[in-house]
Automatic annotation (TrEMBL):
Lineage of the species this protein comes from: Bacteria, Bacillati, Actinomycetota, Actinomycetes, Pseudonocardiales
Domain ANTAR: 92-153
Protein name: ANTAR domain-containing protein
One Pfam family cited in the UniProt record for this chain: ANTAR
Length: 167
């Protein structure tokens, strides 16, 4: 799936882990791994976001037939299985949000780094101070950091003196 640039649900994977109480023993675990391609500004795959959720309890409930044969305990087990499935959906949603955030960071990082370079050249400051100036200007004007950096670069490119009064 990743070769085609799509997310890859790897299916359930069994991977036992050491028992925290007795490190010589292992605890059976079932995991639901998800791989999501991260794209750069040009749409090329720049990395892979790998997210794994522990679904041992849900797998046990489904494979042991606990949810198939009715028993007085079944409503509780169904509820627990639904909670686990909901957690898994939530975790996958979190992975998607993280993916979007990382894509945005990849898209904006170059512009912010260039703006830092302009400030370093103009003011003779270090990279951390240049970034602090951009952040302060962003906060003081209530304008996104990327947009402040873009405006600074545009003003330099067009020969105007940028307004960098922050700091």
């Amino acid at each position: 799936m990743l070769r085609r640039g799509r997310r890859d649900y790897m299916g359930l994977q069994r991977y036992d882990v050491p028992d925290p109480e007795d490190r010589s023993q292992f605890v059976p675990k079932v995991w639901a791994p998800l791989n999501v391609p991260l794209r750069d500004a040009d749409g090329r795959i720049a990395g892979i976001l790998h997210h794994v959720e522990d679904v041992t309890d849900l797998d046990a409930a489904l494979t042991d037939g606990e949810l198939n044969d009715w028993s007085p305990d079944q409503p509780r087990r169904l509820y627990e299985a639904a909670q686990l499935a909901s957690r898994l959906r939530h975790a996958h949603g979190e992975a998607q949000r993280e993916n979007r955030n990382l894509r945005e960071a990849l898209r904006t990082r170059g512009v912010i780094e260039q703006a830092k370079g302009v400030l370093i050249g103009q003011r003779g400051c270090g990279p951390d101070e240049a970034f602090a100036i951009l952040v302060k200007l962003s906060q003081d004007t209530n304008i996104k950091l990327y947009d402040v950096a873009r405006a600074l670069l545009d003003s330099v490119i067009h020969g105007n003196q940028p307004t960098t009064s922050a700091g």
